[in-house]
Structure formats: structure tokens, C-alpha cells
Amino acid sequence: MKRIAHMKISRNKETHRNREQRGQSLVEFSLVLVFLIVVLIGVIDFARFFFTYGTIANAAREGARYGIIYPANVHAGHSADPDNITYRTRESLALLGNAMETPYIQILFPDGCQYVGCRVNVKVTAFFKTWTPLIPRFPVVGEAIMYIE
């Protein structure tokens, strides 16, 4: 009889220890899970930033490439003419969708001329919005300089 009572007491102690162990495991898991989610969102943000930077740099190159072929077509003014440097640059940025704020496109002729041998400079600046908490938006700049053909 004593043996049976002793077994019941030891089982109750083991059950209590198992409950404590499960509670501790749950707390540890929740702490590690928060850290892993933040790291995962950071990795995703880095991939989004890399894609955004590549797209902005390609848009600047596309605008500069169009500018060296047609240097007089800087922008359309009030008309809806799509054959200009600004439009071509904006069209190349369409891949980004709502991933960034409205880009600022700056078109310069650093040599002060628009004929063969002069340079065209297209600079695209946009602000990148991260998903990671505590990281503010920051500017992403793409620039291309080419010689007029």
C-alpha cells in the first residue's frame, strides 16, 4: 500500500514538471519566432530594395538611351505625346507599381548643348518604403550619363 501511494506522489510531481517544461518551451518558441519573423521580413525587404534599385537604374538608362537618339524630346509639356525622355523613363518604372512613391526624373545636358558629342544625364530619385519596422523610408537614386549619337 505504501508503494502505491509513493507512486502516485511521484507521478504528480512529474506531471507538474512536464507542465512547467511545456510552458517554458512555449515562451522560448514565441521569443525565437518574433526574431525569425523580423529577420525574414528584413530578407524580403533587401530583395525588394535590390529589385527596386535595379529597376530605377534601368529606367535611367532607358531614358538616357532615348535621349541620345532624340535629344530634343525632353518632355511633352502639356500634350500627351509619349515620344519623349520623361515618358520612356516612367514607362520603365511601371514594374515597381506601388512599391515606391512617385519618382522624380531629372534630365540634364551637362555640356549645355544637344548635338552629337554632348552628354545626356538622366537621374531618377524615388523613396523606398520598407516593410521592416523601425526602418524609415529612404531615397533610391539611379543615374545614367551617355553621349549623343
How is this fold's topology laid out?
Layout: H1 2-69, H2 85-92, E1 104-108, E2 119-128, E3 138-147
Antiparallel strand pairs: 1-2, 2-3
Helix pairs in contact: 1-2
Order of helices and strands: HHEEE
Q: Low-confidence stretches at least 5 residues in length (pLDDT < 50)?
A: none
Q: Which descriptor suits the 3D outline? A: rod-shaped
Gap between N and C termini: 104 Å
User: Widest sheet: strand order?
Assistant: 1-2-3
Structural description of this entry:
With 149 residues, this protein is α+β, with helices and mostly antiparallel strands. It has one domain. Helix content is 51%, strand content 17%. The protein has two helices and three strands; from the N terminus they run H-H-E-E-E. The protein has a three-stranded antiparallel β-sheet with strand order 1-2-3. It starts with a helix and ends with a strand. The model has no long low-confidence stretch (mean pLDDT 84).
Give a short summary of the structure.
With 149 residues, the chain is α+β, with helices and mostly antiparallel strands. It is built from two helices and three strands.
